[in-house]
Amino acid sequence: xxxxLALGLKKRGFGGQVFGYARREETRTQALETGVADQVxxxxxxxxxxxDLVVVCVPIWTIAKLAEQIIPxxxxxxxxxxxxxxxxxxxxxxxPLFQSSEAFFVGSHPIAGSxxxxxxxxxxDLYDGRLTVVCPSEDTPPEAEELVSNLWKTAGxxxxxxxxxxxxxxxxxxxHLPHMVAAALARSVADGDPAHKADFCGTGFKDTxxxxxxxxxxxxxxxxxxxAALETELDRFHEELQGLIQILRSGNxxxxxxWLEDARDDRDEILNLNRFxxx
Length: 279
Description:
This protein is mainly alpha-helical. It has 2 domains: 2-162, Rossmann fold, CATH 3.40.50; 167-273, Orthogonal Bundle (6-phosphogluconate dehydrogenase C-terminal fold), CATH 1.10.3660.10. Helices cover 54% and strands 10% of the residues. The protein is built from 12 helices and 8 strands. Strands 3-4-5 form a 3-stranded parallel beta sheet. Helix 4 packs parallel to helix 5 and helix 7 packs across helix 11. The longest helix is centred in the middle third of the chain and has 27 residues, at 164-190. It is globular, with a radius of gyration of 21 Å. The two termini are 22 Å apart.
């Protein structure tokens, strides 16, 4: 996510410098060689010392740990944002940390990404033509929210503002539930003798389980910080499955056809209404 953002900004004429932080020397070298960053640091505090805007691209609970390290080094008026998929729990953790600082945190979440990770997966067009949600709190200064919004607009995104609670409820339905279903499907198909089943899995299995290959480190934090909203969506999905089981038990082919046609129409309607997914 971070590499894609840096490359996207540079491609679209961003005039500032990009400073990076990475724990591993190999990653720091790669970031410089690929042009992802102009300078790279092994100390996160040093990386942000002169920054006007800091984007933290790590799993959600790691954001809080990094914040503790960088807040003392932030200059007055600096703004910190993130790319995490949940906001409410993170904001509860970060608010007390920023109260003693003259810097500000404004959460953001680009609705973009892939199951691939690392600098080598950096894509300068990842955020182009996509939606990014910005989640200011009640105390966020307008200029801080504007700085974060302009960052994502520069990267090619359309920006919408939502409260942290609205964001988490929406993403539980549209992002977190699909990931959990894909993971459950992969586990279910592999149960028993995956070696015997593997060659019989076609593109249907590959397409519907793609996101299950995503980073477990990232997704365990997403689930952990959005449990209530995700539980609500999983209950809704469970009801859908129970309805399907009842249809199968009835042996009524017309009901099965109607269920499948409704599902097709629902998917087509969502994709036709979506302005950001490339057709």
